[in-house]
């Protein structure tokens, strides 16, 4: 309104070409703005705007400000669509437009009115005074006021006041005030009939601004690259520490939450390349415990990730169309990438955010690189599981157990601690196979292994030692503690009808217990001591626990 009133009171008849020239110069400079502090940008356009206000008049200069800032806002929206910059709400965009356009225009009009009041109007002073007094005074006043208004906006946006002032206001004022000599020369050489000197100076300012712009772009790309490499390095270290799937997925989710700050929920899916079934683990921002879940058939997003084998980014998500168990109730944006190894989709990574359009293309590319690393780690974990876990019982295989037993012996010798070993055998297992069939025998083996795992601590290690024999390694457990664990396993097997046939004799186990260093001085002797105790339990009637009695290594 104030600008309109000023225009009516002081109509201007400046040639359209001159207005377009100043508008084009200011707009070009605004487009080459570069970030200075927390995404806020600086552009060396103040010299053009002040020069326009002095040589054309403050009202035409104000309208040039409006046109320049409006074009700048439109370009920012275009950049946001092309380069996928974070979006603003309609209210925020309107507030930014009004502040950038009419706020700066009114600021220029206010400076002009102030200069006229003190007798320094460019129309009433000689040329040298307009160049050497009015121009630098107007430029400094405009820049100082503009950046202090920007400082107030930063503080209202909860930026640290000291950092904002030091990194935004001071560099901005110094940088634009250094262009005062160029603005003075532009006013000095400006003549409508001889545009060449003015054009040369304008080009000089554009070249300076372009240099800062290009340097800022290169610096930002280098910083982004360093950040990306740092993230990939951190993810790689976290993934290589684990060869088991559950700890691996937990470590991966932790790294994703740390580096993708917009993510509120993460879904990690693992696909069986043989059957095609997919199992998911859902990680919440506050709850790091995975929730195992097989996706429903109608979860089209997960199916698309697997079928199309490419990333999928949804800016505005209708979470009601997805499984609520695997979708955050406030999810508004969705990003997923597949994990591919040897041209097979072994799983996928899904990020969800409560903010609309929270994930940019740069984050999509970065997540794809993380998924490539995670895919290799998942495949290694699967191969490790195939190499160390018995397919029937789910317990460790004998080779892996022997390795861990040797490590535990070395640890016990070095730190002077003890540990125990249990040797278990299913009683009359051959009779179960002969009378009830091998399918029943396999079920007995699986359920016995399940009972053993349920009776142990997290640090204990259980393995399938032979056909129907099992071994259990109990770190830091003495003979008394080991016998308690053995009795708990024996009772649990006896109390459960593992064979599943009513009226038949119950499945029982016999257990031998040996402790290091009480019953042996090395790993091999400890196994033999537990094995001898097992055979004594068998000879004593089965379904019982016997401890090792040999305190001297076997001479053989």
Please describe the topology of this protein:
Elements (H helix, E strand, L loop, with lengths): L1 H8 L6 H16 L2 E4 L2 E3 L3 H11 L1 H25 L7 H28 L9 H30 L4 H17 L2 H10 L6 H45 L4 H15 L5 E7 L6 E7 L6 E3 L6 H9 L3 E3 L18 E9 L2 E10 L7 H28 L9 H18 L3 E8 L2 H8 L1 H17 L6 E4 L4 E7 L3 H17 L13 E8 L6 H17 L5 E3 L9
Parallel strand pairs: 12-13
Antiparallel strand pairs: 1-2, 3-4, 3-8, 4-5, 6-7, 7-8, 9-11, 9-12, 10-11
Helix pairs in contact: 2-3, 2-4, 3-4, 3-6, 3-8, 4-5, 5-6, 6-7, 6-8, 8-9, 9-10, 9-12, 14-15
Description:
There is one protein chain. This protein has 556 residues and is of the alpha+beta class. 57% of the residues lie in helices and 14% in strands. The protein contains 17 helices and 13 strands. The strands form three sheets. A six-stranded antiparallel beta sheet has the order 5-4-3-8-7-6, with helices on both faces. Strands 10-11-9-12-13 form a five-stranded mixed beta sheet, with helices on both faces. The N and C termini lie far apart (106 Å).
The portion of residues forming beta strands comes to: 5-15%
Helix content: 55-70%
Number of beta-strand segments: 13
Strand order of the largest sheet: 5-4-3-8-7-6
Distance between the termini: 106 Å
| H-E string | HHEEHHHHHHHHEEEHEEEHHEHHEEHEHE
**Which runs of at least 5 residues are low in confidence (pLDDT < 50)?**
1-13, 81-87, 552-556
Mean of the pLDDT scores? Answer: 79
How many helix segments? 17
The coarse silhouette is: elongated
Oligomeric state: single chain
Pairing-aware structural class of the strands and helices? alpha+beta
Instruction: Give the biggest beta sheet.
Output: 6 strands, antiparallel
What integer value in Å does the Rg equal? Answer: 38 Å
